[in-house]
UniProtKB/TrEMBL annotation, chains A, B, C:
Catalyzes the N-acylation of UDP-3-O-acylglucosamine using 3-hydroxyacyl-ACP as the acyl donor. Is involved in the biosynthesis of lipid A, a phosphorylated glycolipid that anchors the lipopolysaccharide to the outer membrane of the cell. The active site is at H243. PANTHER family: UDP-3-O-ACYLGLUCOSAMINE N-ACYLTRANSFERASE (PTHR43378), UDP-3-O-ACYLGLUCOSAMINE N-ACYLTRANSFERASE 1, MITOCHONDRIAL-RELATED (PTHR43378:SF2). It comes from the Bacteria. It comes from Wenzhouxiangella limi. Belongs to the transferase hexapeptide repeat family. LpxD subfamily. GO terms for molecular function: N-acyltransferase activity; UDP-3-O-[(3R)-3-hydroxyacyl]-glucosamine N-acyltransferase activity. It is an enzyme of class 2 (transferase). This is UDP-3-O-acylglucosamine N-acyltransferase.
């Protein structure tokens, strides 16, 4: 659905945000932009000091920024201790998202015993299974499939074309983007007489309040117990979360990450893009994994971890790969040199 | 659809599974759990010896385990040579999945000439194209799209929101999870006068009996001939299988793996999560690829292969990256040391 | 939809393609195949010289190839300066794709104010939002969701089950494969009082003419301005393109690549499979990234770059990982050897 647009005087905007401001209180603000692109009727923000040089030439009507950054700024400023968060609040004011109309679209197919709150919105082409419960103000966008026994919490929003498998429970204000599959079977297989036997997956998925799940992400149901995301977990696009994984509150996971089965991740972790985390590990709170890293061992100390290798010009990289292949031989050569130097083998060896 | 629950006396359960048991034949079993969580009316299993310590404190009504593990166990045990496979069979007994009701949901759109067996189930919001054949007891879950000329084998189950492209053939008992796309065009492009020309992809996809395809996985149609999965191939979530790939029977592929075009993978291979396999390769039978590895060459010997690098604390990893960049210089320094030692260059160089 | 089949005499085919030929002008061609599989009534092609040995035994009715390759060939040949591109044109002749019938399927749900050209095709189970514009001959396949304010260009084809989010603009002849999500929210989060606040994403997505987007790929809407693909960008399956990314014309991106937010990629780049490109980078024109590489820095020189490590037998790889862990110690040992050799520290150090 499209967002509306509202106009504020700078003074009103500052009041609505609870922020001090400098400059012309009557400046009219009705749009948003970047430091480079914002017009004189648009707001923008400065959070990353690296962009400070762009301040000199910005035409923006107002800039949300820290008070110290504003000291040398001639334009209008909204003074904020946390400019990026206040920027988010400013956009919410200027572009309020209209509430979806309550009611069930006539093309939706709803099981007789589903309980759908009167204030909920069920979009076109939706299918809702038996025993489903959809709570107040929840929005089920077009073409979603909600399988039997699912519960969708108050004010949750499934944007469209989301699949939620049997028995899953989504908390309040959860946002789920298109293409997401919650509650598909985990990958459980037993080898028997030379072939695979599927191990039925009888757990489900529980997603806490205020989680957000990015497009085409998959979260498998648990094998026996549930796969769990605590509250305020934020997951980007194309992330794979396998069965029995447990993710702590406030953890953020960037695009293309894969988390294998039964791994526990703590609170306030940040997993950068395309990293992989092996199964049955325990990652403690406040761990940062850098991009394209491979986590093969549990981590019990907060901090930053990684194994991503930055790309180089191909010829240099190929030579480096040759060197890697020589390391075994180098180990022998080093030792031989040390012996012939009468140093004997190094005590570090 | 939700699974039902049944209750068994231990003696009955052992009989149904064809297993010997120890303990109280009248113990009533109606649930499943883990060694840690199972209640006295629940079954659990012990397959991985690492979990043996949990046996001492389990409250489970019965544990499926190997006879030698059971020797020192005081609780009820189902004695199995293959506990994980028998565990799967036990769940099938306790939580039988009800057969989907035969028939076509009124909201489904079915081409006039589609042949749908009377025992098949076609769910809500489904679209079935011209010339499609859906065989006995097949289940097409909600919001699936079955394009023209597709054949879905006996007892296959497309859980929901699956896309199957023109002419694809799925075998018997195949299970396809939500979000899967079978038979999209492969990535075939010819450069012509400074722009790309699409090379039409006229092959299709053939998937053998008893395959299982995980959520949001993609399997492209062949460029000329078909992309093929032999029988009992098991594919996890978010796997990308490019055009003309051929995967041998009983091979298992974990989440987030990518397999580039025209590669052949043998039987009984296991590809761990997030690995990538380049195009036009030949991987023989019984190859294991470890997690997050990059396969750039054909493999003609069974065994385990890999190139994943375990993550380390960031400061240590950054220092190691610096060392990597120095290897070329080290090669020169090593040689110079050897020369000055009158050893001459090593014969290994 | 299924493709039709047509039959040509070789002479006619050569005329239609504007190519010279050698061999029997009356040879009847009605199918396509590979050098190995083509029947005597089928065409095939030879573009990669590595496949030249297969020429000797091919039974194909005609082979599209370069004139110099044809000199020693006894069969029928279509002589082409660009065999792979002419092969694409040949398939288009033999397997013309029928135009989709104009009109709106009765099961589609269309907002009252959507403007849909009379020549456009809207398939079964589609949902089209308010203010949408769908231009001449565009095809919206089954189960697509087109959100409010989207514009779909002339002759564009959304194969089926595609999601296009609010306000996105797709150019002429764009092809979008199933499972694609265009215009989901980017991953914008501000930490505030110990929890995440969502930063509303108010940009959209613009996709130029002649782009092709592979199955289950995701392209996020911009945070403030639009995410942009210029014309003739070709994207394979399961690619993640984050908010504010800008991709230049004629760039091709293979499967499973991830591109983080605000990165700019030039024209005529080729990104091989499963590579990751960090955010806020600038990649110049004509850059090639090899498979499974990690791009962490901007690139300002055309050429080939990479950091993928080819898999080795596991025992050898594990030993190499041990060596990697020893490099810090080796640095000390090398220096000590150099000092004891009275060479002093190397000037390269």
């Amino acid at each position: 659905m499209q967002t509306a647009t509202r106009t504020f005087r700078l003074e009103e905007l500052a009041g609505a945000l609870g922020l001090a401001f400098t400059g012309n209180p009557d400046c009219s603000i009705r749009d948003v932009g970047t430091l480079d692109s914002a017009d004189p009727d648009a707001a923008t923000f400065l959070a990353n000091p690296a962009y400070k040089p762009a301040l000199a030439s910005t035409r923006a009507g107002v800039v949300v920024m820290k008070p110290d950054m504003a000291e040398t700024f001639n334009g209008n400023a909204l003074l904020s201790a946390n400019p990026y968060a206040d920027w988010a609040r400013l956009i919410e004011l200027l572009r309020p998202q209209p509430a979806a109309a309550a009611g069930i679209h006539p093309s939706a197919v709803i099981a007789d015993d589903a309980q759908i709150d009167d204030s909920a919105h069920i979009g076109a082409q939706v299918a809702v299974g038996a025993g489903v419960r959809i709570e107040a103000r929840a929005v089920i966008g077009p073409a979603c499939v909600i399988d039997d026994g699912v519960c969708i919490g108050e004010s949750a929003r499934l944007v469209g074309r989301v699949y939620v498998g049997g028995g899953a429970h989504l908390g309040r204000r959860v946002i789920v983007h298109p293409g997401v599959v919650i509650g598909a079977d985990g990958f459980g297989l037993a080898m028997e007489q030379g072939g695979w036997r599927k191990v039925p997956q009888v757990g489900s998925v529980r997603i806490g309040d205020d989680c957000e799940i990015g497009a085409n992400t998959t979260i498998d149901r648990g094998a026996i117990e549930d796969t769990v995301l605590e509250h305020d977990v934020r997951v980007d696009n194309q992330v794979q979360i396998a069965h029995n994984v447990h993710i702590g509150a406030h953890t953020a996971i960037a695009g293309c990450v894969g988390i294998a089965g039964s791994t526990r991740i703590g609170r306030y972790c940040m997993i950068a893009g395309a990293s992989g985390i092996a199964g049955h590990l325990d990652i403690c709170d406040s761990v940062i994994i850098t991009a394209m890293s491979t986590v093969l061992d549990s981590i019990d100390q907060p901090g930053e971890y990684g194994s991503g290798i930055p790309a180089r010009p191909h010829a240099r990289w190929k030579r480096l790969l040759v060197r890697l292949g020589q390391l075994d031989e180098w180990a022998r050569r080093l030792r031989r040199l040390e012996q012939s130097n009468n140093n004997g083998p190094s005590r570090h060896e």
